[in-house]
Amino acid sequence: MSGLDGRSRDEDGRIRAKNGATRVGTLRQIYGDGFAPGVRSDMKLDTYLDRSGFDSLSQARKGKK
Fold it and tell me: pLDDT for 14-34, tens place per residue?
């Protein structure tokens, strides 16, 4: 798809910038140690989003649901 900068859409049409298999530890290297406090670094992004109730990485970074 053009215009997605190499990203893809989920079945529900959302655009995902990060793969759901990305580990929280990797995201902490990008966004800082304050990302997902109290969560193991080997947890996958999809699992973290499901358990925390966030719909996206953007929401999780902002801490707003």
Answer: 655 668 889 999 999 999 999
Segment 4-10 shows an average pLDDT of 53
Instruction: Give residue limits of the domains in the chain.
Output: 21-62
- Helix, coil or strand: residue 50: helix
- Coarse DSSP helix, strand, coil percentages of the chain, rounded to the nearest 5 percent: 35, 10, 55
Residue 37 tokens, joined: 């406090």
Q: Which two tokens stand for residue 36?
A: 């997902």
What 3-state DSSP class applies to 59?
helix
This prediction's pTM: 0.69
Residue in the block written with tokens 């298999």 = 21
Number of CB atoms found within 10 A of residue 4's CB: 11
